[in-house]
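Forum: Protein Structure Q&A
Topic: Joint prediction for protein chains with partners

I've read a bunch of threads here and the consensus seems to be that you should model interacting components together rather than docking separate models afterwards. I'd like to see that in practice. Below is the full input, 362 residues plus whatever partners are listed. Could one of the regulars post the assembled result?
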Amino acid sequence: MRHSYLPYFRLSVAGAALALALSPVAVLAQSANSASSSPQSGASNSERWLHVRVVSNESKGETVRVNVPLEMAEKVLPAINKDRLHDGKVRIDSRDMEGVDFRTLLDAVRTAKDGEYVTVQGGENDVRVAKQSGYMFVHVTEKGGASKNGKSIEKSKVEVKIPMKVVEALFSAGKDELDIVAALRALSAHGDTELVSVKSDDNIVRVWLDSKNIAD
Amino acid sequence: MILAKVAAGVFGTIFLAGAYTFREGVIRVDVDEYKDDGAHVHLWVPAAAVPTAMRFVPDENLREASAHVKEFGPVARALAKELRNYPNTTFVEVEDQNERTHVRVSTDGARIKIDVDDPDENVHVAVPLATLDDVLSQLESRAKGL
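Posted by a regular:
Agreed with the consensus. Here's the joint model:
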């Protein structure tokens, strides 16, 4: 009778022994996790990272760096179902297209030979749209008046370089839809490349793709 | 002899609880506002305690969070799952012109960390990713009952 609580003590002692036995495993597991957590640990060689860097030229001069693994974006995006974004696809309102059939336009560009398609040299903007070596280039230079020697001053400069495969993947969904996940998948198959560069009085923006998990 | 057994039982239970807490990690919230009457919150909670504590929170107090979980739950769950593949990675970083980091969103092992170092306030939050999963599961199950 005096020892009716003995099984509970035994159970506690057994539990303690079990915890003691398992704790090094837990510690080792965490150590191993930490050891493998060098700056490149999450990134295997084949892993692709999308980087965005925004350098503000304003008084505070802040720099924002965003690093996103493409694989993670591919898996998380389909989970977002809000407004026009569903299952990794963005629904486009035909009114947004302003009567332009982008699919036909894209098909025409895809099958056409390399070359410059649009060159506009205006008073306010210079625009250049070209296709070269499997890439689509869009360059827009906004002008901000003229210097003393009569040359125009560049107010901002936007350079976009997108692999054609990515553009095709983007338009691979149904009508009036952009397949963002397919575009990311196509993008991950590409080597290191600079996608967007914006230089203006206020900011310098750079979007690029590489296999490092840290920005420059 | 009996005392020794009691002590072994007590220490064993404490050790077991400690090992469990250690495995699950700790939720850390530090907030320091540098102004008159500014808040100073320093909270270290064993992550294992949160899902258990949530069971005792009345439904009406979780109604709003449960309503929102239908919208953000799948994204948060997918994100928490994927973030585990990227330990010790900085996803967002904001530096000032002196290259002093004042906002950082990163992972530290199996925890998500948000650090804000500002002249007006410092905020440091660290949450084990597993806890996010547990909390989401609880909120989702509560949402079904609403």
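Residues 1-5, 18-43 of chain A have pLDDT under 50 and may be disordered.
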